Amino acid sequence: MAAGREPKVAHRRPILAFVVAAVVAATTAAIPATAASADPAWLKRLFTQEFEEDFQRTAQGFTPNHWPNSSGQQARWVLSKGEGVRDSAGVAGGAQRFRVENRPEGADVHLVNPHSFVRGQAYRVQFMARAERTTKVDLFLRRDVRPFTPDASKTIEVTREWKSFTFQGTYTAAVAGSFRIGLQETGVDVFIDRYAVFRVTGSDRIAPIDIPAGMDATEQTTLVHDVDFEGEYTHGRYARGWQPNDPSNRADAFEAGPETRAGYFVDGTTSQRFKRETYVADNKVLESRAELYYSFTCQPKKKYRVTAHLRADQGQTEVPAQFGVRRAPEPYTFLTVRNLKLGGSWQPVEMDVVCVQRAGTGIQLRLTVGQVDKNIYIDDLTVSEVHDNPAHPVGTGVVSDNLFGIHSPLMHNPNWRWPALGQHVVRLWDTNTAWRFLEKDQDVWPWDDGQYGKRLDQTFMKKLIQTRNTLDPKLKIVYTMGETPNWASSKPDTPNFAAAPPKNDEDWKDYVRTVARRYKGEIDVYELWNEPDAGPRADGRSFYSGTPERMAQLARLARDVLDREDEEAILVSPGITTGGVSWLDRFLAAGGAEAVHGVGFHWYFGTNPENVGYIDNIRDVMRRHGIEHKKLWNTEGSSSNCVGGVGPCLNDKVAVCLKDGACDAAFCAAEPGNCREVNAVERRSAVARALLLMAGRGVENFNFYTLEGSHDAKLLESAATSDYTTPSEEGRGYSAAADWLRGGKVLQSYIIRDDIYVLRIQQGAQQHSVLWTTGEGVRVRLPQQWNAGQATTLAGTRVDISADRELDLGLEPVKIAS
Hints:
818 residues; alpha+beta; Jelly Rolls; globular
């Protein structure tokens, strides 16, 4: 973190041992001003500061980095130009003066000299220092973002005489860092002069990063925000840090203010009150859509825990309220949310969230009441960063064969065949086999001569059952229900009739019963609906226009029918998009949690499958509804960016952004050089990394979209005209990952320094490891316990591990035989 806020550390997580060298030497002899010409050959000078230029607070290259304690109290410090080392003629130059006046417990300030350090490289700083009295000074070589674990640290003693100090360490982070100076005592002036930073070249060999054999999953927390709702309220209405969001921009649209009545605060004397109201505009009575929000720093891929207490007025019951973590800009999707029913006593609320937004995207806590003219109250809000092993395996079972699934909408091709990619599941979607195609007229099911009934019966089901009987006995079929026919729709006279739920429950039950009876023992999994939370597409249509509560009713009806007709069939909740956690929360609360066997979601990961926080956020919603034991089905997803415009896309191909910006298809098309198409390694590795990470997160099923077709990510090359045997780069990555995971258990999974990923997998009596890095290529040293023998890439290239156990890692995962 650059100069600014660095929160109080409430608990420290375990620190892994890395290659670190720290050397500090001190001499009393004055040294002449340093000069590059006098540097030894093995030191390359990167930065020099003699402090001779004019400056008021800090010399060029230096800045203070300060952070408050949990109560918001800051340290007070002084930075200015002081008197430096005297030359041979007795003339004093300039120096950097640093003094901490006051330091409340938990708050502090460092004098920081930031640099773009290279991971694995050793660096040295040389400087002279003195103090107005003997004092202790802390030196750090450290990254500037969490975790704030130093690569090198040392405490030196600075006296009233100028002394020369040398401090050295090997930098191991993949992000920018700094040399830092911290003062142990307050009220003491410390002066720095003749400061220089060097890269230690030696043989110019970058030291390898040691890979630990495992990682402790112990959970610790760091308090980031603590809002007690005491003190002065802004405009007499809003507690510290809270603001209103009111589309009507009317003062009479809502009420907010401090509440001090007895019983209406948890601790202290005050809570925040909030109420939406009606107002008149254009001779119409309208309901306010006002909300309260609190902005907080939510680092991408980091996990946070939010706690608060909420209540309604005394005597009230089931007052609806929504409290969640949401993106500030469009699309206004929640990362996690609680849809609550509040009563007249305080209700503790807790939710975990992994921040999955792009860097720089604002994140807010959002609070609103779902009913006008009802007060709600909030008190004792905390936000803590959760430090654990974010990649720790979920569950201890064998990786499911169901993880390896596909979509194959071109199965009607005469040259279609079952490709040898390791897949065991086919999801029927974009196959024109949903309800509106099968029963265009009530009670008319043209299985033999109708276009779509015959298509499902004679093309898809016939070929898949033949494949199951002859090639793959593990093959599972996922059938996605929904899409109401016009005659059964609750909105039959609209272009979007298929998205409306059926008006008659019996019509829905008859549909489920007919399909279940016909394909008993053949269709294994029924997915309730496709992407019910997704907004309208370009044509104005959506997949579902009803409420989550109505969908929960349909789920209960479908479960009752399936239990009678095919008790082995699995019912999975509708496959929500990555923005659908609020929809899922309402669906589960309305009875969906009990009705389904598993929870469905869709995840298009592009070139960033490491952003698995989407999965963790869904799991947290499941946990809050008591169904964390149920299976999680990623029924649709891929490395595609162009389908639905979910990410960077260039020339109808998956792309990566080269410049800062929105990083979507429009950004890529706006100016040449904004983006580039992905290369073969990126195509191959994204799919493999996603499968490996989903296996570690305990995901039951993933159906790649698609096997063939014209989309920007597919598993086969030219499938429409080929013999279905030539895999694409995505297909090669898919097949290799399936081979590395099939029948195995993920014993350990962890991340080193934010961008080195490690999985330990047991397959039968054999163990192997899979490693990759999302940062710049890096050299690592494998743990001796692994008895590493050979490394294999996704492309099948094999390399013997050298005796020093060192290996160069890149974006493409490598399998290490043990």
